[in-house]
Amino acid sequence: MSRDGDQQDNHWIGRAVPRVEDDRLLRGNGRYVDDIALPGGVEAAFLRSPHAHARIESVDVKAASEAPGVVAVWTGEDVAGLPPMLNKEELRTPPGLAALLDPTVRMTPMPLLAGGTVLYVGQPVALVLAENRYLAEDALELIDVRYAPLPVLVDPEEALTAQAPLLHDDLPDNTAVAVHARVGDPDAAFASAHTVVSERFEAHRYVASPIETRAVSARVDPYSDRLTVWSGTQTPHRLREAIAHTLGRPADTVHVIAADVGGGFGQKGILYVEELLVPYAALLLGRPVLWREDRNENLTASSHAREQIHLIELAADADGHLVGVRDRITVNFGAYNMTGLVVPYNSLCHLLGPYRVPHVDIDVTGVLTNTTFATPYRGAGRPETVFAMERAMDRLASELGIAPEELRARNLIGPDEMPYATGLVDRSGSPQSYDSGNFPELLRRAVAKADVEGVRARQREGGRDGRHLGIGFAMYIEATGLGPFETARVDIAPTGRVRLAIGAPSQGQGHRTSMAQIAADAIGVPIDVIDVTGGDTEATPFGVGTIASRALVNAGNATHRAGRLVREKIIDAAARRLDVPADSLHLSDGVVASKDPAGPSIDLAELAGRAALPGTPEPTDGQYGTELSETVHFRPPGFAVASGAHAAVVEVDEHTGEVEILHYVVVHDAGVIVNPMIAEGQVTGGIAQGIGGALYEEMVYGADGQPRTGTYMDYLVPTSSEIPDLDMDEIHTPSPMNDLGVKGLGEGGAIAPQAVLANAVEDALRPFGAVVRRGPLSPSRVRDLIRPSVTSG
Q1: Mean pLDDT over all residues of the chain?
Q2: What are phi and psi of 253, to 5 degrees?
Q3: Pairing state of beta strands 322-334 and 289-292?
Q4: In terms of DSSP bridges, do strands 289-292 and 42-48 run parallel, antiparallel, or are they unpaired?
Q5: Across-strand partners of 478?
Q6: Which of 236, 698, 722, 744 has the fewest CB atoms within 10 Å, counting from its CB?
Q7: CA separation for the pair 207, 302 (Å, rounded)
Q8: How far, in Å, are 61, 141, 348 from residue 67 at the CA level?
Q9: How many percent of the chain have pLDDT more than 90?
Q10: Strands (E), 380-522
Q11: Taken in order 444, 448, 449, 450, is the CA torsion positive or negative?
Q12: Nearest to 111 by CA among 77, 144, 88
């Protein structure tokens, strides 16, 4: 990144500045929704359906209404006058995408409380408001609901059959979305190919499971009638619009604040009925209302993710060069279509990854079933599709007798081919183009770090005591910086401190540090004079949120541009105050000084005070504003494509099925790195969640639609003991799509672990002829892979 001559380049950007937010959080001084005391408040609890599919015949709340401490009990009938919930922004199909591919996207509005039919276990049926949560929970047990069970669909492929019962009577079938993309002539490519591999791979269902479960509280100001809502949301502005629509209020009478958030990962990036009902209750009761979910609710009734089936085929010539890819992808949406094409289309347009593929045929279908609705979770369709593609690459390598890393190298797009057009359409509806990257270098470094030759030599020695060594590779690309825009406002306070407000809230990404670094460089002030606010709809009336690896690209560049504009205003104001030409001044470390060492200077506090006498404003003739502030809405012109290569060495115990990670390598490219310490933490966290999905976590449903892993006794989340030390490296290819050259990296670490560990485990189990087609690779599943060989032997 270049600058004018009045500042040092990269004074703050690129430095591993310790996170300024951590001291407060580590001392227990965080302010999460549950920490916000609202005197005179009541607490909410929800009665949830115990059935996966049933007709509600009657609901008797008389006993619950008369229970101690109960303020109100509502059923679907009581809120039937409110509009059902619809994630409108997420369900919107970009015009370009609609025109080129004509996808099917069916709306399934969700009632705020189920009235006629329940479609999944955990769907809210009634709401109790009481003086505290304990009394509310007691009252829930007094509500008598009579259900008539209906046929249950859990398997998405079964749900697509002609005889499958309908989940939504107003739809012709159980298809929620469908889209098809084709490049070149795949039929001819497959017909003439030297080798074709066909496989079925399944990405299993699991859950974001943040440390802080979902929570929302609301209060109405009796004087102004203004509604304030505190939520652990990733998208406060979208929540504000939804609340205003639901309650029939102007949006500017609703104030949404994203408090400290203990992890979001996409699960808190969508709308939920609880976030609409709690403000409604506060409005009707005239009292503050608080709701926070328990862990069982989070595991069973908050959104799920990942479940996909891929029927994938790769076609290659005799040298292993890919000539075609086909994939038929089935995505389990659960009971409602919450986010439309977001996950399915992410899977479609990321399937090819960093590989050159001239002929492509991809078909994606999102299916409705009687399971909890599925939405984006860190990676949002990319881990699933990378699992299928990278597993298929290993199967092709085995078929051709080529080393997996060599097969990948032969098919990588080179840096000299950038920008590279895939022939597909990206999520915005524009022709897909990789703006930058050096994929061969990513792989070269990963191979070198993994010590492939050393691992192969140890493998030739054979397994010792039934422990078998394996090595795997996986590569990915990620289109980051999703639009349509993000907002930043910079204000210089009379004290000289800088106030930065951005539309994107933080759920642990370190915005208060990294955004301050960007602002410090753009303005020319020290980082410790900058105060950052994110996710407050009054501080920034317009915004989108922190989802889709977009905050740094969008909010960061908005911050940079707003900071530069304010810096120009500061120098202009100083020139008038000092009565010198503006081009004779420079701004550094909060001081505007003459470029002549003997010339005048003024610090920002004195300049921002503006007045010779306290309380008297600086005079203006209208040509110049007196406020040192600026607001910028940054709109990205396209996606900034991040990328990475992972390698893993594992040891598998054939007796116990245990998988031990001996060496985990990650080489990533996220363009210009603002804060290396934060970047490393983000990648590490993503890999930890990816390892969880690869080896431990699974949300299991019975054929009756009952979740069987509804507590941490059954749903296994890895701890720090299960996550190995990571061998990390990075390259930097700045993105030409934005001023800072940055790319998103919040999701990148989570994209490849499932694929790389599956490849490594299959490599370790080569003596048994095992093929890994789904996860998690728990000890029992690994033993199931080994057992046929042992039994036949």
Answers
A1: 94
A2: -100, 5
A3: unpaired
A4: parallel
A5: 642
A6: 722
A7: 8
A8: 10, 10, 52
A9: 93
A10: 420-425, 431-434, 467-480, 486-492, 498-502
A11: positive
A12: 77
